[in-house]
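Dear support,

We are seeing what looks like truncated structure output for some complexes. This example has two components. We would appreciate it if you could run it in full and send us the complete token output so we can diff it against ours.
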Amino acid sequence: MRIAVIDDSAARAAVIEEGLREAGLTDLHIFLERHGLAAKLEACSPDVVLLNLENPSRDMLEETFALSRALARPIAMFVDQSDENAIAEAVDAGISAYVVDGLRKERIKPVLDLAVRRFQAFNRLQTELAEARSQLAERKIVDEAKLILMKKRGITEPEAYKLLRTHAMQSNRRIADIAQAIVTAENLLGGAL
Amino acid sequence: MSLDPFRIGFLPLVDAALPILAKELGLAEEQGIDLELVRDMSWATVRDRLIYGGTDAAHLVAPLAIASTLGLDRPATPMTVPFVLGLNGNAVTLAPPLAEAIGAQNGLLDSVTLGQRLAALIALRAREGAKLRFGVVHRYSSHNYMLQYWLRGSGVDVARDVEIVTIAPPFAAEALAMREIDGICVGEPWNSVAVERGVGVIINVTSHIWLRGVEKVLAMQTARAEAEGDIVHRLIRALHKAGEVFIDPARHSSNAAILARADYLDGSADLIERAIADRITLAAGQEPVHIPDFMFQHREAANFPWISQAAWLYAQMVRAGHVVKSDEGYAAAQRVFRPDIYRAAFVGTQVPLPGASAKLEGGISETTGVGTVQGRLLLGPDRFFDGRAFDPDQLDAYLAQD
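Here is the complete output from our reference environment:
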């Protein structure tokens, strides 16, 4: 089974590719570039096309598929409505697929399931990365706020942290938010930091 | 009071303005709705989210709501259009050398003269074996049907002499610059972006092909629209209010600034304001031109879903070979537009409500008073460039003219 993976994210395409290869699907073709995509795809003549849902080339590709004179004419997986939950899950994960008309469903399903799982894993990774980034940024801001407090009030670092925490608890806000307010105020008031 | 959550999918276009303003100006909230807007980059995805439950409604090219109902490219999913989000607002942009070749580089010509010149160029290029290639934003888009209507009405053999391909709106300028296409019919601000980059000249606007022609609609799955009638009524009241704000000249700049935000069009407020204010710069370096009613979002019951407009679109889908004409298909297409829901939402308000649900499209040449069940209503001209009219009761006779 020949599978084309079209994605505007090289990282996500790599994650999908790895998963498919591990499952023994090795006839893989990856396309990241929009230019000349229709012609390249026609030359490749895949049985299955996997495409990220947010890819701006979807309308162009569907038009190409609709006009395709070749016998093997890919249609949206959504046309086979037998498993609506699976489709909703795919849309939710951010994936769309086109399958050559007539290809047996039993053969497609594992590929789609795998692609959905890989997309979900990639999404989780992205979320974790974003969280890690914002945690890092928060830690930096808390450190800055501690420094300001230590300088202004002549207290130690643990004391400064305790002050932040107590204030956060009393006002029912996050420590990072209190820290941000202190740093902003200091900047506005022309502090040295 | 708790708000009802409601999600609307949209593409980054100026005519997504009403849902965006309804949210940002608190008009949806006033109606008890917590509006969430979901931006996508292709109509295919806007449609899939709508069919598979990711969104409750969508800003959609009108023919795509009909295509979804008829089951083209997807399992048939009955759609309901209770409210039209706008009329016209698209333009035809040509690569500068071609605009010059037909003498269209210095201001808009009338669509008949311009169409004849473009038709001659298209025929010449086809004979030379170098067919002109036009982009449209979707196979089932008003852009495609308006462009084809103009070309066909100007004597072009559309199936034989010209190529029409699909290009996503944000890529219009790039595709022109890369010579992937010779021209494009797309919504704003994407023509203006091509003009600013010097890769395109606006040669025509869709309001000069069919004045007051239907463009984007609010589409919902019929099952949802029926189950949530009350929310639908409140939503379209909020959208109507947003239309009032949209056309207020004092608010053009601030509306453009809202649309320009990163979450919405993520573009230049100056370019966006051109379409809002009907002041379009046709070619790089030129002064803007005032094009009255370039886009039409509010007056004259612009948002009323005339069944005859859905019927016209179906007729164009038949002409383009996208559907095979059938009585059932024609009836199903017309059922997508729901003037009854529109009327129910505004009954007892100041909003004028037409008494009829269909009209002779292209039949008004001078502003005319029409019968209403509420309020007073004047309708301005709705002419097609070729002077043809469309009577929804005479589909066969209309198609036989081809």
